[in-house]
């Protein structure tokens, strides 16, 4: 475990970052905010599902693994593409993925880990404690977890294939993991140096841009105080709000370009 930091001035490395949209579900606006909102709370506000890829300078880091088509059917989600097929479009085979950072262990972020047999899994120690502790006796919290996914991660842990970190971890020059908590106790975000400066993959520390802008969290929440502190940390770590990438916002798909070589595929170049 480590708690050291790498600053922007300490490295010239910059990485490519991609957002891969693989599923979606319809929701109404008020269902995406903990506190009451202005306007029509019944207006449509879809929620998209992403995994992210960071690559460059000999590094390849998959951020989250998504869920399968079977899980999509079970939870009534529209499954748009298999994340593994999207990686193939980027020229990446499953066996090429040697490192996976799981932002947290909810079903939509930690499914499919079993499909990456060569990968080390990077996870906050507090997240695995949360996902296997007394909070899982609460149906409102365990609803977002899939027991089979947790079992896969635990098996990998026993096999020495899970790297547990505590707080901030410098994964590589220009790539950092930071615990923020809030949504879950061990939620982590990923900070990446790019040609645009520091980009923060916020995952569910901010489901939507609007959650962050209005400081009104998504209602699936473990600690509201930690969520509020997380908003501050995200902004401190990113080089401007344009470099903050929320975890589920369809606006990502209009803000960033698709790949020229795969114009119909929902893969977006962040940097």
What is the chain-wise order of helices and strands?
A: EEEHEHEHEHHHEEEEEHHEHE
Helix fraction by DSSP (H/I, runs of at least 4): 10-25%
The average pLDDT score comes to: 94
CATH superfamily: Ribonuclease Z/Hydroxyacylglutathione hydrolase-like
The beta-strand count equals 13
CATH topology: Metallo-beta-lactamase, Chain A
User: What oligomeric state best describes the polypeptide chains here?
Assistant: single chain
Number of domains: 1
Contiguous runs where pLDDT drops below 50 for at least 5 residues: 1-11
Distance between the termini: 29 Å
- Which of globular, elongated, flat, extended, rod-shaped describes the shape? globular
β-strand percent reads 25-35%
The main β sheet shows up as:
8 strands, mixed
Number of helices, where a helix is a run of at least 4 consecutive DSSP H or I residues: 9
CATH class: Alpha Beta
Radius of gyration: 17 Å
Structural features, described:
- There is one protein chain.
- The chain has 271 residues and is an alpha/beta fold.
- It has one domain: 4-Layer Sandwich (Metallo-beta-lactamase, Chain A).
- Helices cover 23% and strands 25% of the residues.
- It contains 9 helices and 13 strands.
- It has helices at residues 69-74, 83-89, 107-110, 125-131, 139-142, 147-158, 209-213, 224-237, 252-255; strands at residues 16-25, 47-56, 59-63, 78-79, 99-101, 120-124, 162-165, 168-172, 175-179, 188-194, 197-203, 244-246, 267-269.
- The strands form 2 sheets. Strands 1, 2, 3, 4, 5, 6, 7 and 13 form an 8-stranded mixed β-sheet that branches.
- A hairpin with a 2-residue loop joins strand 2 and strand 3.
- It is globular, with a radius of gyration of 17 Å.
- Residues 1-11 have low confidence and may be disordered.
């Amino acid at each position: 475990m480590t708690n050291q930091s790498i600053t922007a001035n300490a490295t010239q490395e910059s990485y490519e970052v991609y957002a891969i949209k693989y599923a979606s579900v319809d929701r109404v606006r008020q269902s995406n905010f903990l506190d009451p909102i202005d306007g029509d709370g019944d207006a449509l506000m879809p929620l998209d599902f992403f995994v992210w890829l960071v690559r460059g300078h000999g590094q390849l880091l998959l951020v989250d693994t998504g869920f399968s088509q079977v899980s999509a059917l079970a939870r009534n989600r529209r499954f748009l593409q298999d994340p593994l097929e999207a990686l193939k479009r980027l020229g990446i085979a499953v066996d090429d993925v040697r490192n996976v950072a799981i932002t947290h262990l909810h079903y939509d972020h930690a499914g499919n880990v079993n499909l990456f047999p060569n990968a080390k899994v990077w996870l906050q120690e507090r997240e695995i404690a949360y996902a296997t502790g007394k909070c899982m006796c609460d149906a409102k919290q365990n609803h977002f977890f899939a027991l089979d996914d947790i079992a896969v991660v635990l098996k990998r842990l026993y096999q020495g294939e899970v790297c547990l970190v505590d707080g901030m971890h410098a994964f590589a020059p220009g790539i950092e993991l930071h615990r923020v908590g809030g949504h879950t106790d061990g939620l982590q975000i990923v900070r990446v140096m790019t040609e645009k400066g520091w980009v923060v993959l916020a995952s569910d520390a901010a489901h939507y841009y609007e959650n962050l802008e209005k400081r009104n969290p998504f209602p699936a929440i473990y600690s509201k105080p930690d969520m509020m502190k997380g908003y501050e940390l995200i902004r401190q770590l990113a080089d401007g709000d344009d470099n903050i990438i929320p975890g589920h916002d369809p606006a990502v798909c209009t803000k960033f370009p698709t790949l020229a070589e795969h114009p119909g595929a929902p893969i977006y170049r962040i940097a």
